[in-house]
Design brief:
alpha/beta, 44% helix, single chain, globular, 6-stranded mixed β-sheet, 15 helices
């Protein structure tokens, strides 16, 4: 029995997915009933390779390999057991038109799953087998992202009106597919890495002064935050800027927004945000903005190892070579620093000086330039 996909994923209806689940399970049962060992083929995707010449032709939809699961191997048998258990829960969610989180699923069979990462892996495998995105399975992530600014939208029966109080934070909706009636008078969208910076901007009434939308994923962005940002870009056609720490983890968060995550490379086509522009913080900003030596932190061995690994991603050289040069400079400098280091001048330096000057420069250059 084979289960293959061709790289094309659609937003299938629940009934269509339920039929695919029935077909998949029927094939396994038929193989077992005839004494055959089921063979499951799961395509593997990567959103980059390690050819740093810039001459590769990686495609975010291309299959990079096929994993074969059989009952002959004990680890494969356990993995198939977990996959089928999760698939049964997904089937129930779809049939009842209900939603559940990964954590909900984990607690339904804790003794079997043992840890949540096994559930995560099974969900990704199911998405690949059924040729769909995770939200199509009615499996939702608990949204941790926040939004504020010149924006109004509705989700189901709830209205989110940020226009009257643009510097008040609102949680990003979990069910992004239900978001509609989006209205905005903003000039741009600003994505910031972490909540502390988001709160700094809220305290400084940044949105009220600058007429923008500010979003944070509170570190590595979850799926609802990325999907919500994707929706705003599609509906509002605004330039998007991203502000992250000057360290390898901040840069990795930036590339997660821009190019998608490796774990969900099968869905990179709809999760990536090619419109996003890197606003800072750059390694050169330490000298440009007079960040004192005591605010610069030495890069650890782990920092260096992570930076070197990121530098090997082909999309940096092929699509954003200027980003790669800045990351290389970070490695060579041997020091890193956080966004908050700019507050050494004053608490309002970030919102009153740094961000307005950076954004004004980018808007003047080419506000809607996109490198695909």
């Amino acid at each position: 029995m084979e289960s293959r996909i061709d790289g094309k994923r659609s937003s299938s209806s629940s009934s269509h997915l339920l039929q695919k689940i029935r077909d998949f399970c029927r094939s396994i049962v038929e193989d077992l009933s005839y004494g055959r060992s089921p063979v499951i083929y799961i395509n593997r995707f990567r959103n980059y390779c390690t050819d740093t010449s810039g001459n590769c032709y990686c495609n975010h939809d291309s299959i990079k390999g096929v994993e074969v699961l059989t009952l002959q191997q004990e680890c494969h048998a356990r993995r198939l057991d977990i996959l089928l258990r999760v698939l049964l829960i997904v089937q129930q969610l779809l049939q009842e038109n209900r939603h559940g989180s990964k954590r909900d699923i984990y607690y339904m069979h804790t003794s079997v799953f043992r840890e949540q990462s096994t559930v995560e892996r099974a969900i990704n495998d199911i998405c690949i087998i059924l040729q769909c995105s995770r939200h199509n399975l009615n499996v939702v992530s608990v949204a941790k992202g926040l939004v504020m600014g010149w924006l109004r939208f509705s989700e189901a029966d709830m209205m989110y009106n940020c226009l009257n109080h643009p510097d008040t934070a609102h949680s990003i909706p979990v069910h992004v597919e239900d978001v509609k009636d989006i209205i905005s008078v903003a000039d741009y969208i600003l994505v910031v890495e972490k909540e502390s910076v988001f709160q700094r901007l809220a305290d400084d009434c940044f949105c009220k002064t600058n007429r923008c939308i500010v979003i944070t994923g509170r570190g590595y962005p979850d799926i609802p935050t990325r999907r919500f940002l994707r929706l705003l870009i599609e509906k509002l056609h605004l330039p998007v800027f991203c502000l992250v720490d000057c360290d390898p983890y901040g840069f990795d968060i930036l590339t997660t927004y821009r190019f998608g995550s490796l774990q969900m490379a099968y869905d990179a086509k709809i999760m990536r945000l090619p419109e996003i522009q890197w606003l800072g913080v750059f390694p050169s900003d330490a000298e440009t903005y007079g960040v004192p030596q005591q605010c610069l932190l030495p890069m650890t061995v782990k920092d260096r190892s992570k930076t070197e690994a990121i530098l090997n991603r082909c999309y940096l050289q092929r699509i954003v070579p200027q980003w790669r040069l800045k990351l290389q400079l970070l490695l060579e400098s041997g020091v890193k620093f956080e966004i908050e280091a700019l507050s050494v001048h004053s608490l309002t330096f970030l919102s009153k000086e740094y961000l307005p000057s950076k954004i004004q420069g980018l808007l003047a250059e080419c506000p809607l330039q996109v490198e695909v």
